[in-house]
Write a structure and sequence with these properties.
Length: 182
């Protein structure tokens, strides 16, 4: 891995059995993933449930299309957002710094995933700024996490990923229905 090449992320909008968003962060050569039923938000007052799902390959971030009938997750998949990110570490209470070296950042992320708490700053088209994800202990579902926006200059109150103004792919400009019909 090139240390100067930042780690990447993608958000897939996926209409399978139920509509959800798949959030995937590069860690090494794979992408740990979470299904977020209501989608990520830039509103720090809204905590989003995020269910950890199997890691995906790094190449999968470029996938947009239809998963065929009979396969797991059958239905259209849209690239809803993409970009790069820097892991963050807390240097003192409430003070975070970004880890811009990708090898060092990968280590930080692996430790955080094990511990059940990760922090990162996203540089996407729709998602920007600092977030945390924490594993929920003693929750009915295994692998349940929460995704929460930190307060910063990218906060947008009431941000809703399902809003009509975000209904097109940031790569192809297609809607879910256009992808479904392709
Ligand atoms: Mn999915």
């Amino acid at each position: 891995m090139n240390n100067n090449h930042p780690l990447v992320f993608v958000v897939h909008k996926h209409d399978a059995t139920t509509l959800h968003f798949d959030f995937r962060l590069q860690v090494g050569n794979v992408m740990p993933s979470w299904a977020i039923p209501k989608g990520p938000t830039l509103d720090p007052e809204i905590k989003r449930l995020a269910i950890r799902t199997p890691d995906h390959s790094l190449e999968y971030r470029n996938f947009e299309g239809v998963l065929p009938e009979g396969s797991y997750g059958a239905g259209p998949v849209m690239i809803w957002d993409e970009g790069y990110y820097f892991p963050e570490v807390e240097v003192s209470k409430g003070v975070r710094k970004t880890v811009e070296d990708s090898r060092e950042g990968t280590k930080v992320m692996l430790e955080g995933l094990k511990k059940g708490e990760i922090k990162f700053k996203l540089f996407g088209k729709r998602l920007k700024g600092s977030f945390t994800m924490v594993r929920i202990k003693n929750f009915g579902k295994p692998n349940a996490w929460l995704m929460i926006k930190h307060k910063d200059e990218y906060v947008k109150k009431g941000f809703d990923a399902n809003d009509k103004k975000f209904d097109k792919s940031i790569v192809s400009g297609r809607t879910m229905e256009e992808i479904r019909g392709s």
